[in-house]
Write a structure and sequence with these properties.
Length: 252
């Protein structure tokens, strides 16, 4: 059974269809990358799964229940969420922000878990600093730690590597992969197709609100799909570490 599922989901915002009969599922133990051009509907998929935007038709499910029937607490117990928005209004210490990811633990346990999560994302030295005084990438690590504190069955991360340096990008994707290997259902939206191909078990391609591919990376990101959806040329190269995606802006 999927931990996350959309069935025939239709979302309309401001009178415009932004998700058009979307079907997708993510099983426990799986990491799935959601890719697509700007405005294609990636954040809308994630927000619909979490019940943050309502469906005009179809259904969103977290575990065995439609998300619309779950309380906010039940949603938070089933899914950890890293939003695309990185602004934090209050200048609280990083450890206190990260601890917000574990609202169901006692204060001391939440703080201990928050420090562990900050260590996982390489942010131990930031733990006691105010988040307003941090760089964008530092703040991104703190928010990722907040999502990792909660070991919910599902983890949804909206562009978690945006603004991170190359080492941090690989660290974050390795962490998300490890979470999947330990049983979480992980859905991650990404713009970097090469990293999506390398780290995901499966790739979903969304184009103008429709899922146009849902397959293993080498199939979902075929030369034809790359040309049609992204307007770029791409080919797969056999490398000792596995298939590598080589991209080129010029049309072939
Ligand atoms: N609150 C809103 N009101 C009206 N339209 C919206 C709203 N939020 C998003 N949209 C529109 O919905 C479509 C999908 O947006 P969404 O943010 O899901 O795309 P995305 O694939 O995540 O894009 P990006 O890669 O640029 O972050 C876009 O056309 C966007 O303009």
């Amino acid at each position: 059974m999927s931990a996350l599922e959309l069935r025939g989901a239709v979302v309309r915002l401001d009178g415009r269809i932004v998700l058009d009969r979307v079907d997708l599922g993510v099983a426990p133990g799986e990491i799935v990358a959601l890719v697509g051009p700007n405005g294609a509907g990636k954040s809308s998929v994630i927000r619909a799964l979490l019940g943050l935007i309502s469906l005009e038709a179809g259904e969103a499910r977290l575990g065995d229940q439609p998300v619309s029937r779950l309380s906010s607490r039940a949603r938070a117990e089933r899914a950890a969420y890293l939003p695309q928005e990185r602004r934090i209004a209050w200048n609280m210490a990083a450890v206190d922000i990260a601890a917000l990811g574990a609202p169901f633990l006692s204060g001391a346990d939440a703080t201990r878990r928050a420090r562990e999560a900050l260590a996982l994302v390489g942010a131990t030295s930031l733990a006691d600093r105010g988040v307003a005084d941090m760089s964008g990438g530092e703040r991104a690590r703190v928010l990722l730690a907040r999502a990792l504190v909660c070991e919910a069955p599902a983890l949804l991360a909206d562009e978690p590597i945006a603004g991170l340096d190359p080492d941090a990008q690989l660290l974050v994707l390795d962490l998300l992969q490890q979470r999947a290997r330990s049983g979480q259902a992980v859905l991650v939206s990404l713009h970097d197709l090469t990293l999506a191909a390398r780290h995901a078990d499966r790739v979903l391609v969304i184009d103008r609100g429709r899922i146009v591919a849902d397959a293993l990376p080498t199939k979902a990101l075929s030369a034809e799909r790359l040309r049609e959806t992204f307007g770029i040329r791409g080919r797969w190269i056999d490398a000792p570490s596995g298939p590598l995606l080589d991209l080129d802006r010029r049309q072939g």
